[in-house]
Design brief:
By secondary structure, the protein is an alpha+beta fold. The chain has helices at 2-10, 38-41, 91-107, 166-174, 178-183, 192-206, 215-224, 229-235, 237-248, 258-269; strands spanning 52-59, 78-88, 115-119, 124-126, 129-138, 141-151, 154-165.
Amino acid sequence: MAELNSGFVAQGVLRDDCLPLRWGRETELTISAVQALDPLLKDGRPLTYRRGFLSQPVVRFTGQRDASGDLREGFLTSFVNISRVQPIQCMDEYGAILDGWLSVMSRLGFHARHISVHGKLAAWRRCPVQGVTLRFNHLDLPLGDIVLLWNADNPARMAVDLGTGLERLAWARTRMAWHDLVFGKYALVATPRTLDAVRTATLLLAHGIRPAARGAGGITRRVIGTIASDSAGLLGVSSLVRSSYRYWRLFGEPNAPWPAVAMAIEEELGI
């Protein structure tokens, strides 16, 4: 992942200006960088929380799963949502943003002839927001989407949300085995479910979201509860936490040191 991360640093994409992980509005946690546009698109106010390129760590439980309940390749509970969230004044800006993204992709090694864009021009509505979504692939691999958004009551308040996952970009660029790419040397020493859970718990705890009975802390408790304590104990929680902690630290300074994160997981697991 380091090589692709370096490419985004060169483009000025990786910056310490992401949204707080604890959101507390319509969702307990931040699930997408597009939430930075909430004041403009949902409240009808001429402002945003953030704009431009964002490297936003997010937590989602919507990843596709196989018959056994494990996440399919290409999906994680926690990942970095690489987005450009931008208010616009006219449709020409929408096209320019897509063109600029193709230039970024080209500099990262994705040739434009291998990128396809598809979707429906019919608008969808999730009150109070309307939009049109176009998805883009690299060869046979879905990478992300570009969404034109506007406030349903005031269509002049428009914005673009162009997003993908950093890990998925790395997967498309390298075509490595998914679990080797994401978990590195730990890919074969614990189950993907445990590795995914430790990775997510590390992100949550590093941002100060400790286990609790409800709210955002309830999500942390739920995630830790899926860790196989026997395999985690055998391998050592601290080793897994340090690996994940180094990765998440690329996108902003954590609120808690890694030993405190490891200790919190061990206490919750009773190991």
